[in-house]
Amino acid sequence: MSITDFLDRTDEKSSNTGEARILSRTAGVIQPIDGDAMAARRGIAGQLTDGPRWRRRRCWIRPTVYLGVSMITVIIVIVLVALAVFFLRSVHATTKQRQFDDARAEAGRWVERLGGQVLNLTGTTIAAKQALADASERYHAAGSQLEQATSVEQAGLAKETALEGLYYVRAARVAMGMDAGPALPQDEARTRAGAVTEHRRVEVDGETYEASPRPGQNTPHYYPGGEVAGRPVPQGWYSQPWWKPALIGGAWGLGSAVLFGALFTGMSGIADAQTWQSGYEAGQQDAGDSWAGLDDLDTW
């Protein structure tokens, strides 16, 4: 056996004496060491190797636990917030849908009521026929608006159109000498616009216009009152629908302001009559200033 193989056997215990032998590689000789000394050396080595490892393990346990608890808490909070947002959106959508269904049902009742009147009444006078024709036009418009409605506001617009048609039905019944029927809801615009309280006949730009609180041979056109293109039109009977250009085009001309002033100036119960006159005069003043400027240029 070579000396190298012999040196590789580092730990041999004697069965008789209980001593341990340590082979010294540096000296190349065998030096017996007492068993207690060997145990002491091994104990010191174990403390040096095992102690720090245990302390390192203990130091890393608590941060890992805290990190895990924090992550679980964050996940729970995120889930709760997501559930709360989903719940609130669901409640909002349900409430909005219920409001729309109610508004649509309300408008549908007025449209059905208008349709029943339009289909069952037949005009016997010129004024009644014209009023029923206007009511029929509102009936078809309200039905189309209700069919295409997707919001509470659009359903409300269909209701307003149907109510306007019912005002025309009431006017037709009055024109035929019948009872006007049950009262209809009033709105602020109609109240503010007022009503024709006396018969008026005026000429504007060579054309004759008449307004009356009652239907007649010369006043077959009815308007239930309200705002047209932001201006009030009083409820009453007229010789011609002078408000229709503004209703279609969405704007009033200077001629309409002159006509309004001629028909309603001094008539009691007409709201905002001075607004038309003030607007017209302001426009005329601006126009006069412009022409004055042009005259000054001509003098040069």
Question: Describe it for me?
Answer:
The protein has 300 residues and is an alpha+beta fold. Among the domains are: 3-50, no CATH class; 192-300, no CATH class. The chain has helices spanning 3-8, 35-120, 126-148, 152-175, 188-193, 244-249, 254-264, 273-299; strands spanning 12-13, 20-24, 29-33, 200-204, 207-212, 221-223, 226-228, 231-233, 236-238. The strands form three sheets. Strands 4-5-9-6 form a four-stranded antiparallel sheet. The protein has a three-stranded antiparallel sheet with strand order 1-2-3. α2 runs parallel beside α4 (152-175), α3 (126-148) packs antiparallel against α4 (152-175) and α7 (254-264) packs across α8 (273-299).
What's the arrangement of secondary structure elements?
Elements: H1 3-8, E1 12-13, E2 20-24, E3 29-33, H2 35-120, H3 126-148, H4 152-175, H5 188-193, E4 200-204, E5 207-212, E6 221-223, E7 226-228, E8 231-233, E9 236-238, H6 244-249, H7 254-264, H8 273-299
Antiparallel strand pairs: 1-2, 2-3, 4-5, 5-9, 6-9, 7-8
Helix pairs in contact: 2-3, 2-4, 3-4, 7-8
